[in-house]
Amino acid sequence: MSLAHRIIPCLDTDGERVVKGVNFVALRDAGDPVVLARRYNAEGADELVVLDIAASRDRRPTFLETIRKVAAELAIPLTAGGGIRTLDDARAVVRAGADKVTVNTAAVLRPGLISELSEEFGSQAVVLAIDAKRDSNFWRVMTTGGRVSTDLDAISWATKGAELGAGEILLTSMDRDGTQSGFDVALTAAISKKVMVPVIASGGARWPQHFAGIFCEGAADAALAASIFHDGIQSIRSLKEFLAAQNIQVRLPC
Length: 254
Known about the structure:
Shape: globular
Distance between the termini: 21 Å
Helix content: 25-40%
Number of helices: 11
Largest sheet: 8 strands, parallel, barrel
CATH class: Alpha Beta
CATH superfamily: Aldolase class I
Oligomer: single chain
């Protein structure tokens, strides 16, 4: 039996408040992370991701108090990250209540960090976040909250990250982020074919059909979204009911 596909709300924060933008810019306030976490836990989310999207840019520690408060509201797994550069940073996040840690910029700068985290916590607790932007005939890896361009190809980097010990890939299409025009199926499918670990698709969700497409055509194991849930455009319960009706395996809320 195949594993159920996961629906994962994401709380992008500036440290204390949830924010959301388009293509990683024009950020607006989207609410209180604790209130939103409580709501998504009740609605039947499979997991929750909380990211301090300004931590690497501002060179400040991850928002530990926010993680503690959010974790206290959850009966589902919590992934947290933003500004994690060392094992000590990751240990602090786990002690604050996270089940998994996610790394992006620091892993690009020092890939060995992925192996260190995997050895410390197990690969199942290490999520490699990749922010990818289309550049001619390939997808370029971006870091520092999407502000810094690298020479890395997203497909190659995902493959290397999995080899180094990442147990999951959180793949965000910067081109689709916040646009509500649909997930990047081509990008997600290209990476899903190359790695043996689960791939979480992110960026561009709006309609239930977008989720069906990324699961069926993009071969994603999970789908992450933010603004459509924050703004009440889509409810997790109705989304899961739609997917189940399409014979896509999901965990239906009680």
